[in-house]
Amino acid sequence: MSTPLFTRTDPALGEFALRPVDPSGDAALLHRWVTDPKAVFWLMQDCDLAAVEKEFARIAADPFHHAFLGLHNSTPAFLMERYDPAHRELVGVHAAEPGDVGMHFLVAPTDTPVHGFTLAVLTTVMEMLFADPGTRRVVVEPDARNTAVHVLNKAVGFEVLRTVSLPSKDACLSTCTRDQFLATRGENR
Q: How is the beta sheet containing 6-10 ordered, strand by strand?
């Protein structure tokens, strides 16, 4: 198991950390998460274990796409993918600018939800992305039907630019600059 690349302490919920996904070592865990009915928007519902491992091995080998396992108080609890929108996901749909970083996140399914947990995960993800001084703007393309994530995205500063048609969905192309994110945190730069 690798050392976390980023750690954040949430005053109410404790420690959140991210480490690179180990495609073979994490495959069984990730398979349970991405095939759960609550992960319908992750688009991997019908994948078997081998397909999940193959997908994360593909991501690990891709210089423009990275996957991270998120930990909450040292227990696996979420997944984050970072990608370069100039080379993946949004090519031909979004005119990527220098400093744009694409992102997906998935909170592990649970029978005991904790109030504020998903927002704390998204805040951690955004802090990790903006910890890189080269990141100027985070770009996301959630399914237009995923109303829950739209509310969360707005809470951390995302602005919907437009609806776009992607091969697997109609998506709300949205962006969040560093200043927009900091404003939601009550911070100015």
A: 6-10, 14-20, 65-72, 75-83, 100-107, 137-140, 169-177, 159-166
Q: Could you report the per-residue pLDDT of 127-159, keeping only the tens digit for each?
A: 999 999 999 999 999 999 999 999 999 999 999
Backbone angles phi, psi at 165, to 5 degrees: -95, 120
Give which of 37, 10, 11, 22 is closest to 76, Cα–Cα: 22
Is residue 66 a contact partner of residue 83, using CB atoms and an 8 Å limit? yes
User: For residue range 9-48, what is the model confidence (pLDDT) as tens digits?
Assistant: 999 999 999 999 999 999 999 999 999 988 888 878 888 9
Convert the pLDDT of each residue in 55-77 to its tens digit.
Answer: 999 999 999 999 999 999 999 99
- What secondary structure, in 3-state letters, does the chain show? CCCCCEEEEECCCEEEEEEECCCCCCHHHHHHHHCCHHHHHHCCCCCCHHHHHHHHHHHHHCCCEEEEEEEECCEEEEEEEEECCCCCCCCCCCCCCCCEEEEEEEECCCCCCCCCHHHHHHHHHHHHHHHCCCCCEEEECCECCCHHHHHHHHHCCCEEEEEEEECCEEEEEEEEEHHHHHHHCCCCC
pTM of the model: 0.93
